[in-house]
Amino acid sequence: AINAFIFDLDGVLTDTAEYHYLAWSALANELAVPFDRDDNEQLKGVDRMGSLDYILKKGNVNLTEQQKLTLADKKNLHYQQLINDMSPKDLFEGVTELFAQLKQQNINIGLASASKNAQMVLERLGIADQFDYVADAAKVAQGKPHPEIFLTVAEAFFLPADQCVGIEDSIAGLQSIVSAKMHSVGIGQPEVLYQADVVYADIKSFNLQQVLALA
Ligand code: BG6
Ligand code: MG
Asked: Which of 84, 112, 154, 159 has the fewest CB atoms below 10 angstroms from its CB?
């Protein structure tokens, strides 16, 4: 049986994936590095410095660690401006109902987010108290696609991986779930998220019975 649902945040519960994209493309533009939505698919789920390294590599730009930290801070400030006005109305449609169904069935709700801004976004959305356990960038050594972040949540619940479902909008995040040997749900396009056991366009299309039948 499935006893835990472990959600990614950005792009799964709210549209912050778009804000990360806007902030990275502004930075890439300043560096004169070409950056499009296909590049962005590679970056979804990837931590801040890993994302910056991808852009610098693409543009053959060589910088010192100090210069990299300055650029990462700059992107983050831009991102934080973009999320500043977020409120509970920015929660994707269907999340409240899905969480209520999970709670009713005594299924644990976890968060596995690579973002150092995760706690702030959860608070803006008004859902910080909905999670039985939250793992964010501060809790893990290895980012997605490494399985550590999803396994950290499963361990907090004392559950084996095959009793957990991970829900992700990113290629790197799905790889993390698959490596953790958990069941997986993709949120987005099936062509991009082909690794997932099942893919829905968005959370409001979630079919709980279908997902519970995975185990
Ligand atoms: C992930 C996003 O959730 O968090 C990435 O999918 C982002 O796009 C990463 O780069 C790190 O976020 P932050 O807020 O720590 O820069
Ligand atoms: Mg995501």
From this structure: 84
